[in-house]
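Protocol step 4 of 6: record predicted structures for both targets in the notebook before any analysis. Target 1:
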Amino acid sequence: DALNFQGDVLMDEGNFVAAKTNYEIALGIMSNITAQEPENQTFKKILLNTYYDLGHFYFTQDTKNRQDLTLEKLDQGLQVAKRMPLELKDEERDRIVAHIYELIGDVYTEKGEQSQALDNYRQAQAVITKNMKGSPDGPLWQFELGRNYRLMGRTQYFQVDYAGALNSFTQCVNLLDQLSDDERARYESSLAYQGMGNILHSQNKQA
């Protein structure tokens, strides 16, 4: 887990080669440990997060096969999640799984495969809403749901489903405007308002 954290720090610093090295070392270590102790859910969760970190790393790189590498690592992460007892509540695990689905959605959005993107955003939303009720991290899950609606709205806009996009953007701002002290919420909300403006602009062009 320390190697993943160090990789995140190196990513923030722009030291991508060193970040990748840390993630790959972490992946090798956690794969071996998890194989030796397959019932240890903590080790599986660290392995799950490592696959997400590597997928996110590849997505940020300007290389020809970055989309395929991203999807490969994220799919491997989901395979780890499927070997975990999902009926047991674990918000940290579920947050990683939701982020994996959303990043898969981002890849398909970039590829122009909007239906696939929307399917994955909906998968993420199902994980998020499952955790919102009764969670001590309610505001965090509220942020996650608001951000998810913003991603869905963007995809629906690309699909020229303006009614669906407007509904998703509205859901986003209704959730995130309640979190005005959260800088990330304000940023996501501003993107949703921008999306609403894009819808009006596109509708006016069609009129």
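Target 2:
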Amino acid sequence: KEWLNKHVSKRNTKSREKSTLVQDIYIKDRKKHPYCDQNQLLIDINRYKYSCNDLLFFLLVSEDETLLGIVSLHLWNQKKSLNDPTLPKKIEHAKSFLNEISLCLDNLSIHQKIENLLSYKQELKQQILQDEEELKRKILELTTLYEASLDLGNATNQNDLLNLSFNAIEKIVPYAACTIFVSDEKDAGDLMIHNNANLPSQSIYEIKK
């Protein structure tokens, strides 16, 4: 792939001049080519019972030099070389056809990139909204805690202290009922309940139980 990408970059200017997205690479002798897989060559020779020396690659390349695909052409099944004089015109027809395919693939790639960008934009927008809501919540929490600390300092008895605590909690987390356990060294303590939703006495009893 590294070798193919080098060829794509090297021949890009020439390709643009021809207004084509297909580039061809002809390998005359696979045995001598430094980037050809010799193990694969042996497999091909055994499969086709032929030398399988030459091979033509068509590189399908996008406008931004991205390799979209590779098409290979050979006549090993006919035990023929690509030097056949009847082939050049057929190869040109094949290149024209592959160029149309490359254009379609390139357009598809562009549309996918646009869709990805739009999707990413929407994700960022949602993330910003979530961050704004989270920031508002944090500010509310800090403001409430600050105000509650000031108010609690002025509380003169336990009931005032509990009511201020219930009110501070409700500003941050709206509730139907809230409980605060008041510890006492002399006994087991008591569970104080603030009922915002007019819960029936049975429900209050169940909470305390």
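Step 5 preliminary note on target 2. The helical segments are 2-10, 12-17, 38-48, 87-152, 158-172, 201-208. The beta strands are 22-27, 55-61, 67-73, 177-182, 190-195.
Proceed to step 6 after PI sign-off.
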